[in-house]
Specification:
The complex is a heterodimer. By secondary structure, chain A is of the alpha+beta class. Chain A contains 5 helices and 17 strands. Chain A folds into 2 domains: 1-74, N-terminal domain of TfIIb (Single Sheet), CATH 2.20.25; 85-282, Naphthalene 1,2-dioxygenase Alpha Subunit, Chain A, domain 1, CATH 3.90.380. The longest helix of chain A is centred in the C-terminal third of the chain and has 19 residues, at 219-237. The radius of gyration of chain A is 18 Å and the shape is globular. Chain A starts with a helix and ends with a strand. The radius of gyration of chain B is 19 Å and the shape is elongated. Chain B has 2 domains: 2-91, Rieske [2Fe-2S] iron-sulphur domain (Rieske Iron-sulfur Protein); 106-190, 2-Layer Sandwich (Alpha-Beta Plaits). In chain B, a hairpin with a 5-residue loop joins strand 6 (52-53) and strand 7 (59-61). Classes of the chains: A alpha+beta, B alpha+beta. Chains A and B meet through helix 3 of A and loops of B. The structure holds FE2/S2 (inorganic) cluster and fe (ii) ion (FE2). Residues 105, 111, 115-116, 233 of chain A line the site of fe (ii) ion. Chain A: Residues 95-270 form the Vanillate O-demethylase oxygenase-like C-terminal catalytic domain.
Chain lengths: 282, 191
């Protein structure tokens, strides 16, 4: 299969940054191709199947590479550099679904009461209030703002239920950044990201990463909390039909709560990013 | 529960009052398998965002918008479904004929065989391509009626019914059925 430039000339995470306790994977897959992640001293190097050296960026706690030649830099997360944040890599979780379905699920809040019951949501607090979504043309990113939701335990550091405010940002076809009110520091945002490595069109590896104002909770608990949430999501993601994300309207029926997902699909289509997508309604 | 009808993956469920329905196993919202959903009274609730569908497949509640009356166009894809003689029958289109008369039998159990329906039929000595078979009585085992459902090329579900009789005989029938499965699967391996 020949891959479209939109997918080839893009940065993807393939390993955790080498200064982390876990070593990079020796071998992994990217867009159906085998790649090797090696260490030259402290410097990560990524090699294609044919021995070619691939471009590398180490950022946001991960090693990023590309099979092509991206003309753009990898997106920045300026807020992540604020002093006092705990940076937490969570490792990879492999999911048998399209990378795009994994991102879309991350953008969705309406599932909280049903999939993350009594943690990120609970009945009868199921209503999704109006929020704002737009494609910021100047940066070519999808943004959802003023998203609010009632949560019984919004974060590891939260005591009891609160109404949490969220902002979602999609700066990259397979990555999303979530800004969320931070219980110990009103006025600041916790950052939780989802970096998705497309292994194949219907198989991916997600690398959650967090930059939090939380100096209380042990690292292991933070990671475990995030992994538990993601394993709940996986039970959904592996059971959606079709596995690929339908980009054309008609096959799936959105409501007002799905405005972020609608904008995300439209944005992917406009960029010609079809890896992991289904174009014609089956 | 999840089932299949030919190549269609199907969700079959029974409401609190006993009504059965069969739908294509895909929620119209975001494609989640409806067979993972849960029954609430007369409705089936999808596990992903909790959309609730009535027995006719029409969406009645969208929890993200509690005050919204969902438009009539939001519905699941329904199959024909019938609850008769202790068996749930499904068809992708409503057939003109009623299910066969099974005689005086009660449901025994359903088993999955790692063998295609033709192989199962051949083992009973009856002409293949019949989906209704009979196993003759042996000693304490009452005669059985077997209904075959193709699950895939080398897999089938066998729904067994037996003439009404005492518990002891039904236990024997159940063992006989397991033995029949062992022999059928062994035949497949030998072939
Ligand atoms: S996928 Fe079924 S309710 Fe959303
Ligand atoms: Fe989730």
């Amino acid at each position: 299969m020949t891959l479209p430039a939109a997918a080839i000339d893009e940065w993807y995470p393939v390993a955790m940054a080498p200064d982390r306790p876990l070593r990079p994977d020796q071998e992994t897959t990217l867009l159906g191709e085998r790649v090797r992640v090696l260490l030259d001293g402290q410097e990560p190097r990524v090699e294609a199947n044919d021995g070619r050296n691939l471009p590398v960026i180490v950022r946001h706690g991960h090693v990023w590479t590309s099979l092509g030649a991206p003309k753009h830099d990898l997106f920045a997360i300026p807020e992540g550099e604020q002093p006092g944040r705990r940076l937490v890599e969570c490792g990879a979780i492999r999911v048998r679904c399209s990378p795009l379905r994994a991102v879309e699920n991350f953008l969705d809040i309406a599932h909280f009461p049903f999939v993350h019951t009594d943690i990120l949501g609970s009945e009868p607090h199921t209503e999704v209030n109006r929020y704002e979504v737009r494609i910021r043309e100047e940066v070519d990113e999808v943004w959802a703002t003023k998203v609010t939701f009632y949560q019984p335990q919004a974060a590891k550091s939260a005591q009891g239920g609160i109404t949490t405010e969220y902002m979602y940002r999609v700066p990259h076809p397979t990555c999303s950044v979530l800004y969320k009110t931070c219980p110990p520091r009103p006025g600041e945002w916790d950052i939780i990201t989802l970096f998705v490595q497309p292994l194949e069109e219907d198989l991916c590896q997600v690398w959650p990463w967090m930059a939090l104002f939380d100096d209380q909770t042990p690292q292991a608990d933070l990671i475990q909390f995030q992994q538990m949430i993601f394993l709940q999501d996986r039970s959904i993601l592996e059971n959606q039909i079709p596995r690929l994300l339908p980009l054309d309207p008609g096959m799936e029926m959105p409501t007002r709560a799905d405005l972020t997902s609608v904008a995300y699909r439209r944005w992917l289509k406009k960029r010609g990013y079809h890896y992991g997508a289904q174009l014609v309604a089956a | 529960m999840a089932s299949v009808c030919g190549t269609l993956e199907v969700a079959v469920w029974r409401s609190a009052s006993g009504r059965v329905a069969a739908w294509v196993d895909r929620c119209p919202h975001r494609g989640m398998r409806l067979s993972h959903g849960f029954v609430r009274g007369e409705m089936l609730s999808c596990i992903y965002h909790g959309w609730r569908f009535d027995g006719a497949g029409r969406c009645r509640k969208i929890p993200a918008h509690p005050d919204l009356d969902p438009p009539e166009t939001i519905r699941t894809q329904s199959l024909a479904c019938l609850d008769a003689q202790g068996v749930i029958w499904i068809a992708s289109e409503a057939p003109a004929v009623a299910p066969p008369d099974l005689g005086n039998v009660v449901p025994l159990r359903s088993l999955t065989f790692e063998a295609g329906i033709d192989a199962v039929a051949a083992m009973t000595g009856e002409v293949p391509d019949r989906s209704l078979l009979r196993l003759d009585a042996h000693g304490p085992v009452p005669p059985l009626v077997l209904l075959l459902q193709a699950l895939g090329p080398g897999r089938s579900a066998v729904h067994a019914l037996a003439a009404p009789t005492g518990t002891g005989a039904l236990v024997a029938a159940s063992r006989a059925l397991e033995d029949f499965r062992r022999r059928t699967e062994a035949q497949g391996i030998a072939a």
